[in-house]
Design goal:
nine-stranded antiparallel beta sheet; 355 residues; 14 strands; homodimer; alpha+beta
Chain lengths: 355, 355
């Protein structure tokens, strides 16, 4: 079984993922940058029996689970970092700490179409993916062992993808991740001091200034952050204060899917289909936990959910890893200008529905 | 001019490196994994006039600077993230903070021989590289604008190298990097509470247990950390409490160079010449600073310098970036066993001296 281990010197947790165990000669390269053999793709329409059983299917027709007839499909990861089964033990070992690898690791197959990356989907298809994200978040929060569920998408080999077929993932952990904890704490302290949301303040300041805002819609604003870690790193934030993605109404998801369509197609044009990560930052569940301080049940309303997009066209090298600094060769003001000036392809190509 | 920008939400600094500025179409891939055209290599023996002027040359014969006749050569980076010239201004901008990009970015050319990676050097050659590191640290600490100098080595494209010729780098910053600050603080608090060094405690516990210690020498111990972030991540620590690499006596550098020779040649055998980063973690300068609290002048003796080696054979993907967790598929106990069982090639091939 996998386990979470704490490094007391770095103050960070690692998942020692024994189910994904590699021996030295097995660190070979897979190539998700090319379509490969569609017939052998486990996420391909018609190959449903090659994945673990279906957790959720969006748009399923009258046909039974674990076969064709779906538009978005969620299954357990075949090589999970963490598993739902098992008791959540926590123990100290000398100066170390370890926690059983209990959690969840799911794959959201975004489309039945192997060759249809999110930038090519129409907004309606993207909206179904966002609904699947929302539904999985709501469901997993019923499990009292889980503290946080992180949803992310890796596109391209250098961004960590291992399969070409468009998909996103969810990893749920028994400990709130340190990056999330840090942001929650900053938001809470800001609110405590000023009775305002730090993200709302950020949006206010950046919209007034304008030079780091590529564009905005009714409900969302795009932002090249002042201290962007990567060239063309982009945050997509709801303009109104909303702390939790899981509470998003349908019309918010509809607007967000149009933003994503527009943004991802511009980025593809601008950077020639770069590898990227897209990460959902949202407040954790609000359920009170046995043995947890009240803290975690009240903090969440101070937060402001958003998406972070990071193209992986520069490296995290020795300096970045050893220092915690990023080196970004593209000022965000320039990135915003390039994004604004790139025409949206807007190509909403209808595809034949499968079968 | 470059500048350092602080992200108030993430609590991290980014270097916006305008001297390395890229336009979108310029994010092309270089290939440091293959030797390329030796004649065009700026670090090649005989091409000295193609680099910025020499800062240091180790083993220089009677011939003048900026020409042949050296064994290790240090020059300024041609596309520096930070520059020595300029005034160190610090200012707030709305909710943001920025600092002028003053610092240093140097390249340590480790050998005159293009095709001689560190794993092939003999220990005597590696020792000269370590002496260059030590000498540059000592020299840069004389500059009161510089708070920290980080020395690191990127090997292979996926580890961030952009040139094949064996080299390491130094980036000196006007702010202590957050990763270093975190470790200094942990070490200080541990010492404050227990009057012991946390790294010494770690070494004591791990040597007694043994299963994460590949091997040790007179002066050094190798350790696969309990919560290793990457498969075969390895720390090389002095067995005695030594806080500052810059104070290392020659015999310590000689022992370390034998350890590195042995370790890097085993790793190359085991993982087929993997891309890797090697990072020096050491205490910052002890000079008191104008306007700095006494804190930074007293903390350093609590620290324990060491080298961190991270092979880059797994990806930092969306989950890792968004959470701060690492996922490591190789338990460190297994990695230690593989390292122990791999014979050291020990091949100390003498090469013809250049010219």
């Amino acid at each position: 079984m996998s386990e979470l281990r704490y490094d007391p010197i770095r103050g960070r947790w690692t998942i020692i993922a024994t189910e994904r165990a590699f021996r030295p000669h097995e660190f070979r390269r897979r190539d998700p940058d090319h379509p490969g053999d569609v017939g052998a793709c486990p996420f391909e329409y018609g190959n449903e029996e090659t994945t673990p059983p279906e957790i959720l299917a969006i748009g399923r027709d009258h046909r039974p689970a674990n076969g064709p007839g779906w538009q978005v499909r969620v299954v357990a990861n075949k090589f999970p970092a963490l598993r739902v089964e098992g008791e959540l033990t926590r123990e100290g070992v000398g100066i170390f700490d370890r926690v059983a690898g209990v959690g969840a690791h799911e794959v959201i197959v975004e489309t039945p179409h192997h060759m249809r990356p999110m930038a090519d989907m129409d907004a309606g298809e993207i909206e179904l993916v966002l609904r699947a994200w929302r539904e999985r978040l709501v469901d997993l929060r019923r499990d009292p062992r889980i503290r946080y569920a992180l949803i992310f998408k890796n596109h391209g080999r250098e961004a960590g993808a291992s399969l070409f077929h468009p998909h996103s993932q969810l990893i749920a952990t028994p400990i709130i991740p340190i990056v999330v904890k840090g942001e929650l704490q900053v938001a809470r302290e800001h609110w405590h001091r000023k009775e305002r949301c730090i993200f709302c303040d950020l949006i206010h300041q950046e919209r007034a200034l304008g030079d780091r805002v590529p564009w905005e819609t009714d409900q969302f604003v795009l932002l090249e952050p002042f201290a962007a870690s990567f060239p063309f790193e982009t945050w997509i934030l709801p303009r109104r204060h909303l702390h939790d993605f899981a509470y998003s109404p349908d019309e918010t998801l509809a607007d967000l899917s149009r933003v994503l369509k527009d943004f991802l197609s511009r980025i593809r044009t601008l950077l020639s289909d770069p590898p990227f990560n897209l990460i959902l930052h949202t407040a954790p569940s609000s359920h009170p936990r046995i043995g947890q301080p009240q803290y975690w049940t009240t903090i969440e309303h101070d937060y402001h959910w958003h998406l972070e997009f990071v193209p992986r066209i520069t490296q995290i090298a020795g300096f970045e890893w050893g220092s915690g600094y990023s080196i970004n060769p593209t000022p965000p003001e320039e990135a915003a200008r390039y994004l604004r000036d790139t025409p949206s392809t807007g190509r909403e190509s209808r595809v034949e529905s499968r079968e």
